[in-house]
Amino acid sequence: MSKHAIGVDIGGTTTKFGVVTRDGKILEQDRIPTNAHDVVEDFIDDLHAKLAPMVERNGGIDNIIGIGMGAPNGNFYSGNIEFAPNLKWKGIIPIAELIHKKFGLTTRLTNDANAAAMGEMIYGCAKNMKHFITITLGTGVGSGIVIDGKIVLGHDGFAGELGHTIIRPGGRLHKSTGSHGCLESYASATGVRETAIELLTEHPETESLLRNYAINALTSETVYECAMQGDAIANRIFEFTGQILGESLANFIMFSSPEAIVLFGGLTKAGNLLLNPTRKHMEANLLPIFQNKVKLLFSDLKEADAAILGASALVWDM
Amino acid sequence: MSKHAIGVDIGGTTTKFGVVTRDGKILEQDRIPTNAHDVVEDFIDDLHAKLAPMVERNGGIDNIIGIGMGAPNGNFYSGNIEFAPNLKWKGIIPIAELIHKKFGLTTRLTNDANAAAMGEMIYGCAKNMKHFITITLGTGVGSGIVIDGKIVLGHDGFAGELGHTIIRPGGRLHKSTGSHGCLESYASATGVRETAIELLTEHPETESLLRNYAINALTSETVYECAMQGDAIANRIFEFTGQILGESLANFIMFSSPEAIVLFGGLTKAGNLLLNPTRKHMEANLLPIFQNKVKLLFSDLKEADAAILGASALVWDM
Question: pTM value?
Fold first, then answer.
């Protein structure tokens, strides 16, 4: 019998979960707030109350192979969420063990970016690829690295923090870590907003549609809308963002020589505005043996589904 | 019976080879010039003429499990040397196949930096490690990456070109590739020499022992000697070199989260002059979850032996 899997994506605000078939169909899904619970046990009780009837409606518990979870700072080796800055539960949370006890099902955990990479490998545009990197361009920059068909975890389970690699030494401050010039401080929604403010401030003489927005209303979406209307500064923002991203991708390619880089997340809505400068600067910074070889792709998974699919993928090889 | 292996290290100038026991003893070794032969077949004839009697003296051909080779631009997947800029043989050279035909032994090829990493894993200070990176600091900067106990080759066999990752975008010109600001243009013997010339030129008022040398006599060794005598500019050269190297290592660690970084090659003779600033800047650029975890080691293999040992290690898992 072809069993189903449960996928759980624990995000900073919302936890999404669903019952997934082996071929990647989400039979049913729901969500609960993540940070409404001061103790993790209450969160798990809530999750169980929602999931138990969902499982019953889809073939019962005997038809579930296991639970796969993605979470910020989730560690595959230990099954713990370790010191996640954006979650209420502080310190080390043995969430895989707690969920296993509550549900009686094998439970696996990894970080959310690695779960996204699993989703691409099993259900998405990296299907059948053995070597690729996913980069999530959202509020922050996440990454999942696949080598020889396996997620790279490193000796302690924390590998793949490419958003924190330094691409402009001494550059822009990354507020939550105090580092300077990391990829995330430029190639994220937050970074695009900061670039907008910088360029508008540095060029007070240049007219721009962006000046019609209050500083607080400047987002990567407003920059996109202005760029599509031909606004010069808005276009320059994406050119610069793509330059930083492309230079970083070149460095990653010279590390692991992947077949493809899969881009995912809110910033990819900018389409070619982002893709063209990214590709240009990526190719320009590669050694010739890597040039014109690496596919630069946008994920074709629906963002709402991708996290659940990716998390569920953790248990299929059991 | 415990068989021996043959290790062959094809360098730009010299090819070294030897018969190696499973526990890493080189029973006998010799060398021939690499670039004395216009066609690769003549090189192989020479190699065979030297190796055949060596094999006879050490138990005969039946006692040899295979031939492992390291070479610039050597590709493990294809067994070819592909477009190596420093060798006389141009284009694609099917060297593993040619050697196999000549010797009648299973032959494996990889690039020289990967062979060095194999040597560290089987015979050197990365023994029993599953996750580490070797960085060779010589005329250039080479690298070998090990994840889950395996050399990272990437989808095409060219992974691990960390010397060409960009750490100072728009920075120093790398003459042979035309790139700007790559690690190799700073943290190599050539890079140390360039830093010396830059600092001496930028600070004409500062006295320095280095000014006693003709520009052509300025080498990483002379910089080391002057630094040991307390010369301020010479010390600053190593501080700067260590800063660039340390920042780069931090980026590599956030990619694959290795247990150790093993440094190898001529520049490591500078000892703590290089190690201290490297460690300082490496730690300063890491996310807290990576800090004070990664060992920064100097290789303890003899440089003359390491390449032969590493190449021979390619055939032990057959």
Answer: 0.94
